[in-house]
Amino acid sequence: MLYGRTVSFSALLIVALVNATTELNANSLAYDISLNTSSLESLGSGFVDIQLNPGASDALLVSASIYGISTDGMLGPSTDTGSASGSLAGSPLPYLSNTTTFNDIFEQIVWGNALNFTVCLCGPGIDGQSITGTTFSVSLYAPDAITPVLTTSPDGSILHIDVNPPAGTVTTTSFPDANGVTWATIDGPTACPEPTEALLILTGVLVFWLRRTVRRHSMNDPEAGAATITQPAGSGNIRVD
Questions:
Q1: What is the phi/psi pair of residue 5, to 5°?
Q2: Do 77 and 121 belong to one domain?
Q3: pLDDT in tens, 178-225
Q4: What pLDDT score does 91 carry?
Q5: CA-to-CA distance for 174 and 159, rounded, in angstroms?
Q6: Residue 37 shares a structural domain with residue 120
Q7: Which helix H or strand E contains 179, and what residues bound it?
Q8: pLDDT in tens, 13-72
Q9: DSSP assignment of 23-59, as one string?
Q10: Of 190, 213, 229, which residue is a domain's last?
């Protein structure tokens, strides 16, 4: 009976996670970002600055996950501030949320011809009713880490993806340089990938918990002979018979 109840409980937890991730995916948008950095190669190196900041503390939650990163340049060390972590170089990949005033990843780069990535924006702030918005922005800086390049935007950014009040609608802007040339392209939105990784992790945890529960029950309950644990020779997998 314990084994049957355990399997049923595990199945319910998996179904709950599937429902939760489906709901999360409904409030998410993915954008493909392409930065033409060919004109910066003569500078040698510089910096990429990625931010996700709320307009005020009452903004609804929005998070940004970055993946699919490619460049023919060379990414270097990074620093993060606020609710931000990760690196364009990976391990882990960049993740930001708008839960503090200033959320930032600042990363060194040796310039190549291009830097491309996809950002997934998700959370209740997307299509949510709020009086305050949130802005995802990317800026490129010269080797002095102070001078913005390839833009005339007052805040130094080369692009914005804005989650706008009051309905959480999303707009995109690529800012031109002093000659009117735009070096950033934003394509989308498309659907963010299903977060199957979280489901796989939870399934693994449930399998481990199931094995441990059945093992403990069979050892402590002399009447639990119907559920025995065997491990075939040469196999690393535990089978419940």
A1: -65, -40
A2: yes
A3: 999 999 999 999 999 865 444 444 455 455 556 556 555 555 555 544
A4: 83
A5: 4
A6: yes
A7: none
A8: 554 444 444 444 558 999 999 999 999 999 999 999 999 999 999 999 999 999 999 999
A9: HHHHTEEEEEEEEE-GGGGGG-EEEEEEEEEESSTTP
A10: 190
Same domain, 86 and 178: yes
Q: Could you list the residue range(s) of the whole structural domain that residue 226 is in?
A: 2-21+196-240
Where would I find the beta strands (DSSP E) of 123-224?
A: 134-141, 157-164, 169-174, 184-190
| Angle in degrees, 0-180, between the axes of helices 2-26 and 196-220, rounded to the nearest 10 | 170
Under 8 Å between Cβ of 86 and 123:
no
Angle at 160 between CA 157 and CA 166, to 5 degrees: 135
Q: Name the residue among 194, 188, 183 with its Cα closest to residue 20.
A: 194
Q: Amino acid letter at 94?
A: P
* CA–CA dist 81, 35 (Å, integer): 23
How many domains does one find in the chain?
A: 2
